[in-house]
Amino acid sequence: MSQVRRATAQAHPNIALIKYWGNRDAYWRIPANDSLSFNLAGLWTRTTVAFRPDLDADRLVLHGREVTGPGLARAQRVLDRVRAASGLTWRAEVVSENNFPMGTGIASSASAFAALALAAAAAAGLDWPEAALSRLARLGSGSAARSVPGGFVIWRAGQGDEDSFAYTFAAADHWALADCIAIVSARPKAVGSSQGHDLAATSPLQAARVADAPRRLALAQDAVLRRDFAQLAEVVELDTHLMHAVMQTSQPRLLYWQAASLEVMHAVRAWRAAGRPVAYTLDAGPNVHVLCPATHADSVAADLAVLPGVTEVRVATVGGPARLLSDDTPRN
Ligand code: DP6
Predict the structure, then answer these.
(1) Does ligand 1 have an atom closer than 6 angstroms to the CB of 193?
(2) What mean pLDDT is predicted for residues 115-137?
(3) Helices (H), the chain
(4) How many angstroms is it from 305 CA to the middle of ligand 1?
(5) Helix axis angle, 297-305 relative to 259-273, nearest 10°?
(6) Model-level pTM?
(7) Bond into 252 cis (ω within 30)
(8) Nearest CA, atom 6, ligand 1
(9) Ligand 1 pocket test target in 197, 239, 242, 246 with most atoms within 8 Å of CB
(10) Which of 117, 143, 238, 315 could be stapled to 137 by a disulfide with Cβ–Cβ 3.0 to 4.6 Å?
């Protein structure tokens, strides 16, 4: 056992303010447009990777349960790249857990593949820079590329594998924003993101959404840099509606919203019209991410919790980068 090469990493999920929807190259996960997000502090995935000479096959254990099939194959894409780069041929045991229960509807693939990328590279002895780790995470899940760097992040689509990675454009402490996640359904979604990305091009609206993406991204980046919540709110809601318009007009049509999602959207619109700094965004699911300055998070979360159909509200602030954990690192 002394030969085991092991490392543990922790990563946060992220919420996209300018969305990634559709790939130019699905195999390499080269997205159709640049995207912008911030990491969600307080929510994390922790993953230990152990390359061992005594294993016949890779193993993935998620919350104490063995994962096989496509889930394991996705993790192996990351492990295989690490083996190829390091020369290590041993199989790996991957043990992972989230502090947000799966089934709450909070996407876990971003934090999962960011943590896997860091842990696998470190376990194999690769001392890679952040951009290379972001590229590695992207092979497992596109949005995971954005969970490697900390704070406010841009993922440049790039031309191919080498230049498609994410970087920090403002540190986590630049602006104290909060994401109050109104959970309206814990059911697994009918059509997952990877399948959805493949359908994006079937919508006649996707080309227009992608063509306007650089303008929206510039507005969102400028709003973050100047801490202009009103400007951010406008462009974030526009971007989310453009993505959902594409989803709703692809073949087959994807309708992720539930009645309760609309209740929350209407409430947020009314609150903002009354002068409250709030804005919403939705990913490929019915739960509504309500953004606000962190000073408003308690009152926004309390008001969300009593809306019809909201079963739970999780509050996250802006989080740091994915990082390696040593055995004596404080676990928080
Ligand atoms: C709607 O990163 O989950 O959350 O690359 O297939 O794993 P894969 O897709 P994923 O897609 C995220 C889509 C989104 C928008 C976003 O986070 O930008």
Answers:
(1) yes
(2) 98
(3) 70-86, 109-123, 130-140, 193-199, 206-211, 213-225, 229-248, 259-273, 297-305
(4) 26
(5) 140
(6) 0.96
(7) yes
(8) 194
(9) 197
(10) 117
